[in-house]
Amino acid sequence: MPSVIRGPQGLIVTAALAVVGALVAAAVLFTSSRASDVNLTTAGLVPADAGIYVALNTDLASSQWVATFKLAERLGAEDPEDELKDGAEESGLDWEDEIAPFLGGNAAIYVRGLDIESVSASGAVILKAKDAGRALEVIEDEMGSFDEETYHGVDYFSLGFDGYVARLGDHLVIAFDEDSIEEVIDVHQGKAPSLASVDDFKRLRDELTGNFLAFVYVDASSLMGNFLLEDPAVKAALDQSGAADMALRPSALVIGAKDGGFQFEVASIGEAGQVSPMLAPRTSRFAALVPADAAVFVSTTGIAQTWESTVGDARGEIDDTLREHSDYDSLDAVLRDAGEEIGLDSIEDLVKLLEGETALAVWFPRGSIDDPEVVVLAETDENTARPIIERIVREGAAGSPERRTVGGVEMTIAVDPNGEPLAYAFKDGYLAIGTPEAVETVLAMGAGDANLAGLRRYQETVAQMSSALGTYAFFNIAALLRLDEMPGMPRQMDEAERALGGIILNWVEERGVVRVSGVVTIEE
């Protein structure tokens, strides 16, 4: 046995063995074809009022770990197995004897309460062990002899420095204090409810953990107690901002891997409230109207409705705040000033046009990041929008606009005093405005032309998402990395270029859960 750190630091080292083991042992098993889901068995031992619960998948034959190490190979790792085994040996760890016994499916740490005034918390580390008996021996080897105690017929052991360990079937519990080890025993014996029985936890778990590498659950009200969330000033601020429901309800984060790439998702039980129009699940119309080489595509919807629901009933409060903290006496005055900059009575006139989908697309046909083509697309009523857009263009133009016909549609081009051109056109219920080449490309797009929605990389990235799309951004990473490519780029970077596909960041409200999620695809 190699020399180890004794005392409290040793407990931390031991509690982390499952995490270290997951990284080390994956090298042995990552080529396995067996794939299985991982259950959060540790949640069945955690008290129901836990404020934070963090779980790690330690089933190294699960599809998550199999996918993770295959993805690492695509990114340029030559032999993950040898690299990790060598790392374990260099750390003085015997994987088979000291790490593998801890790996039984999932390991977790929870915090039940946080006392800011005394800077203290209660909680424990819980591991589902492959060999709980051997794992307990490893802890004893690390910490020295145990003092045995008994609580409700269950033996547990004092580590002599305010640390406690118990074996509950195939789970090990390492607690920060005696009260915590006893509360876990109470949950194990059914004398207290578990986190796994809490409706909000179950809902988030079922939504997010079909399979996972790491799962985090946070209940701010349980964690903070009376410290913040029952403070009148804090609650009033949350209520006025419209964020109270989301802030006071539990949320969760999951990180995972699939054959095609990595993904993360953050979800909250709270309703989206005033921003819900922008978070509606949908399919983008405009992804099929921009070229397949679009490197950046951002899409949202319901901006006008969200503005109205957010600002409409709060103008009085906003006016009061502006008078107190600025030279303006009202929100309308701010909006008028902003509007005058572009030739409008109020910038709100422009915002109110954006009732349907609004999207931004950027591409680089000449391969230089300094020479992009950019277009903004917006579903809007032409009769209402045309006079507003024409006013904006006249305000910024340095001469008479040019008009030309593209695909049977009139396109207007204006040049500003700096010589920069801007084009716009209305077609089939939408506005296209941007660089002339970009607008012309959109207007000329035919049914058989290559577009972003039909791009394999875009489709594969969308397919990796575990939820529908709402407000989202897509990045064609491979295309972006090739911009202004410099000669002599390291081989590892070349491999990453070939492997990295697309990224999507997404914000959506679906099935009563508000989600922020992301995917990065790794191609073969």
Description:
The protein has 524 residues and is α+β, with helices and mostly antiparallel strands. Helices cover 35% and strands 26% of the residues. It is built from 20 helices and 20 strands. The protein has a 20-stranded antiparallel β-sheet, with helices on both faces. A hairpin with a 5-residue loop joins strand 15 and strand 16. Helix 2 (17-29) runs antiparallel to helix 4. The model is unreliable at 1-36, 233-238, 240-246 and 486-493 (pLDDT under 50).
**Low-pLDDT residue spans:** 1-36, 233-238, 240-246, 486-493
Percentage of residues in DSSP E strands:
25-35%
Helical residues, percent? 25-40%
Instruction: Determine Rg (CA atoms, Å).
Output: 29 Å
**Mean pLDDT over the residues:** 82
The shape, in one word, is elongated
Task: Output the structural class.
Answer: alpha+beta
Largest sheet: 20 strands, antiparallel
Number of helices: 20
Give the number of DSSP strands. Answer: 20
Task: Give the N-terminus to C-terminus distance in angstroms.
Answer: 42 Å
